[in-house]
Amino acid sequence: MNESCADASVLGFQISLSMLLGVVTFATVLSNAFVIATIFLTRKLHTPANFLIGSLAVTDLLVSILVMPISIVYTVSKTWSLGQIVCDIWLSSDITFCTASILHLCVIALDRYWAITDALEYSKRRTMRRAGIMVGVVWVISISISMPPLFWRQAKAHEELKECLVNTDQISYTLYSTFGAFYVPTVLLVILYGRIYVAARSRIFKMPTSSGKRFTTAQLIQTSAGSSLCSLNSSSNQEGHVHSGTGSSPLFVNSVKVKLADSVLERKRLCAARERKATKTLGIILGAFIVCWLPFFVGTLVTAICKECWFHPVLVDVFTWLGYLNSLINPVIYTMFNDEFKQAFQKLIKFRRFS
Fold this sequence. Notes:
The chain has a single domain (about 15-210, about 275-350), classed as Up-down Bundle (Rhopdopsin 7-helix transmembrane proteins), CATH 1.20.1070. About 80% of the residues lie in helices and about 0% in strands. The chain is built from twelve helices and no strands. Helix 1 packs parallel to helix 11 (about 315-335), helix 2 runs antiparallel to helix 3 and helix 5 packs antiparallel against helix 7.
């Protein structure tokens, strides 16, 4: 009687766990598919920066389709029953796609860093081709990290497989893979975000506020990106020419200058708001990435270095799925904190016609 109750309890737990992980997997598929569809169908989002975001969504979609479903079976059953070949393919896909997802965050941060610190020059080089090369480099690094275990796992292909794990006895590979897939990218992300934050704050603080003295026309030209303003301002001779050539009164000219100041001021306020939001979004993504992946990679490194150290299998599963959860969080953050994505996403949901 007690044994049957215990079996029923275990079965109930397995079903509940399967449903929970299934919901997470389905939500990851759906959210990333919507981000991809939103970028593809919205012409306004066809930019190099959004191409990188779309590529990240494709990578996270691959994690949710090719890695997470098999991981559900393995996590719930606690034993591997799919054979050596499927194990090799699954582990390689897991390492490749998860590493690519992490490295995509690096190239997105790098693109953002160049765009905010060298805006004029980088805008000329910020092309789809350049974005494609960056994505190509991400995949080359990811594949180079996932391939080595295939060579020494073949030696055990004839043995009956009961578990499917990367062999942490190969300490050199563990160091290579963990540092290449997580620790080095994390340091790079923290440095880039720190510099982006400082650059964004300095630009925001340079923005004129609505209160205080109005800017002169010459000041507006120096701080504005638009050269078309030059026809309206700059020297007293030009102002005199406006008076004499058009017969306009000083009151009219001052009115034009005030309207010009308001126009540039409003544009700068909008730019500042966009800078703040973009920096905040990147910060949230960085924070979520570290929270999701740090436990897994710390656990992997500790297990490899300290042979006496041991983590409970349940804890290992929690760390693994916390890492997978990052593939769900990325598209959610972009749709929640990016106004362009939010508007296009709403149009997609409502089946409106895209511009």
